Amino acid sequence: MNCFFVSRSIRRATVLAAALAFAVWTPLRAADLDLMEEKAFRAAVDNVAPSVVRIETVGGLDRVGDVQFGPGPTTGLVIAEDGYIVSSAFNFIHQPSSILIQLPDQTRKPAVVVATDHNRMLVLLKIETNKPLPVPESTPADEIRVGQWAIAVGRTFPGERPNVAVGIVSALGRIWGKAIQTDAAVGPNNYGGPLVDVGGRVLGVLMPMSPDGAEEVAGYGWYDSGIGFAVPLSDILDIFPRLKKGEDLHPGQLGIGLGKDTLLVGPPLIATVRPNSPAFKAGLRAGDRIVRIDDRAVERRVQLKVEMARRYAGDTIRLLVLRGEKQIECEAPLVAELEPYQHPFLGLLPMRTAGEKGKKTEGVPLRFVYPDSPAGGARTQRGDVVVSLDGQAVAGADDLRQRLSSKAVGDTVALEIRSGGETRKIELPLTSQPEGIPSAPLPSAYESGSAAPDDKPVKQDVEQPAAANKPAMFKMKLPEWDNDAWAYVPPGVHSPCGLVVWLHAPGGLDEQSLLAQWKASLDQHGLILLAPKAANPDQWSMTEVAFVEKLIESLKTSYAVDPRRVVFAGRHGGGTLAYLLAWQDPQKVAAVAAVDAPMPGRVPENDPAHRIAFYVAKAEKSEYTKGVESSITRLRDERYPVTVEDLGKDSREFSTEEVSHLARWIDTLDRI
Fold first, then answer.
1. Which of 47, 58, 163, 605 is deepest in the core (most CB within 10 A)?
2. What is the pLDDT of residue 26?
3. Nearest-angstrom CA–CA distance, 463 and 362
């Protein structure tokens, strides 16, 4: 142990011993307690301050996404006496041309980035030094307790002393087991700095983090919210040897999907296995239940999420799974990236079942067969029934989709088709999802003579009552929101029905004009139209995402909605909000229709367990053209199907004919 550690430990012990003696032998007043706390906090900060450095960056981007970057300094923490410093990756995403480290003695040194940990979002820097740098002491993980003091330290302001914010440890194992949570103020002033205990030991390094995102800016929006995160220093020291070698670290990918059940309580049952992924190569299958990873038992999905979140690409994990009653052990080396998933396509549009809840379906009756598809080239036609896939009986359209989700484009599948009184077997190659719309008229999706059931009355302020034989147009209002909304339900609608959520452009909503534009298509295809209104007609706010989501749930209490035909749509800012809603909870939407609207943020991976399609309308001379074209490219790079509509030279509203084209596209979203 070097002299720095010895002297610091003695000083900490002396301070705490003096405070304890004072508390035992002296009647305490509130002012005395405040003074004791202040002295303890000062001593703790003095302990760690020699290891906290100021980081200055020069050059780089002015903006990354929605985050504006200025010339202000940031913070880092020394973790090795020979010049290794750790900081938040957030501080460097603007790609600075140079990095300068200012040590507590005001010495300035140029630094280089050695490696980045893209899982815990931290960066390792290196400076050259001719003397050992002071290294802080790490708090052992088993000594960290919820409720203990936590001091957030940064070094961004002028002066010799660091900036300090005091709080407590408010939770452990956050961000899927990767972070300590604190209510101390955490923000750009101390990102990359230490979170320390009252003894001056480092609990962790402060980072902007979020359980819903893995990018460098995730969690930045929680700045000053009372929720901050720190990656435990003990975890950083464990991976330090790998970073020191210049090895960038990435989250480890296995390549499985767990379906739609509640994440925290559902069992770790595999719903999909990504083709060519580590899971696929290890022999895992849909239906397997994971019961152990390495030496840790896994009983719930959240435990699986935590176990996977803490591992890196290049790590090899041992898995124990249950397949029925059989236990299977295997190993899987995790990878940094999976091939973008592309949902396969047979060329089938299935019949729909109207109002028959709980009825078991055998096979998949066909409504339409795409002429240029694999199925179209195999004499398959309307009225045929898909009986089995790869030798196993098919229990309906959803079952067929789910089983195809473990297949890859280019794979060959064996189908058993019943046509009239005969059954035949065929083998078909899987192709990619189509981006075009069938030119031939689509036949009815329901059996002739099937009647639409009477819908329940709408539990809102209803201007025109809903009935099976006439349309309903009514206002909707949620008690906790000032926003208005209205909905239109076509006459004789089959249940479950499709739903279009139209999000208006800046300037507000003219519901009568919108209905005139959409009514014929809604009536023809049996689609409900829901049109929320922004509180500010010229701009949607992020808080109104929750309003739209609750509005949809309220509508679903009165009408059964087909999840395969739920579409978020809009023009300009409304189209951008449609993308945001889709990324917020992809399981609740089947498609996005964006009219001259750029997509914000990054594109999530295409999920084998859930399909989303995109309908994008663009204009040649719009101010948004470049953003829209970039959106199309990024979506296709992730292998999403994108149907593109050309608006011509100038941006404009859809014509009635173009709305009809869009409605036909919506009518094909349940294709297989």
1. 47
2. 47
3. 42
* Total-model pTM: 0.77
Q: What's the pLDDT score for residue 223?
A: 52
Q: Which amino acid is at 412?
A: T
Q: What are the structure tokens assigned to 358, written together?
A: 């709980």
Contact criterion met (CB below 8 Å) for 592 and 578 = yes
pLDDT of residue 579 exceeding 90: yes
State mean pLDDT over 322-334.
Answer: 94
Query: Are the beta carbons of 241 and 235 closer than 8 angstroms?
Result: no
pLDDT score for 57: 87
- 31 Cβ partners below 8 Å, 6+ apart? none
pLDDT above 70: percentage of residues in the chain: 85
Distance CA 172, CA 155 (A): 25
Q: What is the DSSP string of 294-353?
A: TTEE--SHHHHHHHHHT-BTT-EEEEEEEETTEEEEEEEE-BS--PPP--EE--EEE---
Distance CA 539, CA 122 (A): 36
470: tokens are 């006439």
| Cα 359 to Cα 477: distance, rounded to the nearest angstrom | 34
Domains of the chain (ranges, CATH numbers): 3-244 (2.40.10.120), 261-333 (2.30.42.10), 346-431 (2.30.42.10), 472-666 (3.40.50.1820)
